[in-house]
Design a protein that fits this description.
two-stranded parallel ribbon; 3 helices; 81 residues; 2 strands
Length: 81
Amino acid sequence: MTYRELDARVRLAAGGLQSLGVTPGDLVCVVAPNHVDYLVTFYASTLIGSTLQPLNPLYTTGADFICIVAQRDRTITIGDT
């Protein structure tokens, strides 16, 4: 992947996050293994002024996710199944 391709993916992802209602100051939680899509999401959330909160995909209890969601008034979940 070139920097130009990365930039295009970041801008596309930022637009997608904004279309889902993510605004500056929002918390974007990500449960993902190390992958280029994690990097894209990090830069996309930074580009629109939101904060990325990584969650460990190895946790099975969901305790960390519950703690973060309990502090927010809305949740958007995106992912592969």
